[in-house]
Amino acid sequence: TVIATVPGDSSAYFLVCAHGDADSGGPGADDNASGVSGVLEIARTLGALVRSRVVARPKFTIQFVIWGTEIHSTEHYVKERANDLEQILGVLNIDEIGTGATRDCLYFESNDIGHNERLLRTLERVGEEYAGRTGFWTESTTNPSQGGTDSYVFFPNYLRHLKVPEVEIPSVTIYTGAWNELKRMQQTDG
Asked: Would strands 60-67 and 105-109 be described as parallel, antiparallel, or unpaired?
């Protein structure tokens, strides 16, 4: 696991993360070298903008993390910080942003977790603002949890499983294509 930090005015922080290992369903270039490259580019760009003072120092610290393994490394991170989990204000997990093979859409997952709503609404506004513009996806949407990825480790039921304090950490996965074929899913009401 590799961690880099853009310090903010507060020790409370947001995580921007991706798993560095290749999922067994592959291909590794999309799952998840694409997510790793996205996190690295966000960190590089934001760091350069803050250092050059084009952008002010952030109000909250931003921690960029590339997990060594999708679930195990995330679990280890959470266990090491068990007494400080309330410092994590939100998790933006970047996973499979390379293709969008089945639909030209940017997805924000998990809208079935109540305490994700505020973060999801913010991401939804940004997604809709850029949807349809040249060089961007044609649409964006939120969707419910679809299985298991590193962002799920921050959900209360997973924290309970790890026997660490259960805090409500907004945790969203951002992706463009997660399956090699169309999949129907039940949408969360609202």
From this structure: unpaired
Cα 165 to Cα 161: distance, rounded to the nearest angstrom: 10
Each residue's pLDDT tens digit, 113-149 = 999 999 999 999 999 999 999 988 888 989 898 878 8
- Of 79, 84, 97, whose CA–CA distance to 17 is shortest? 97
Please, which pLDDT band fits residue 44 given cuts at 50, 70 and 90?
Answer: very high
Q: Is residue 85 classed exposed, middle or buried when 0-12, 13-18 and 19+ CB atoms within 10 A define those classes?
A: middle
The closest alpha carbon to 172, from 125, 118, 128, 131, belongs to 118
CB proximity list for 171: less than 8 A, separation 6 or greater: 90, 91, 93, 110, 113, 116, 151, 152, 154, 155
Which pTM value belongs to this model?
0.90
Q: How far is CA 3 from CA 16, 52, 127, 135, 167, in A?
A: 10, 22, 27, 30, 22
Taking Cα atoms as reference points, which of 91, 131, 99 lies closest to residue 33? Answer: 99
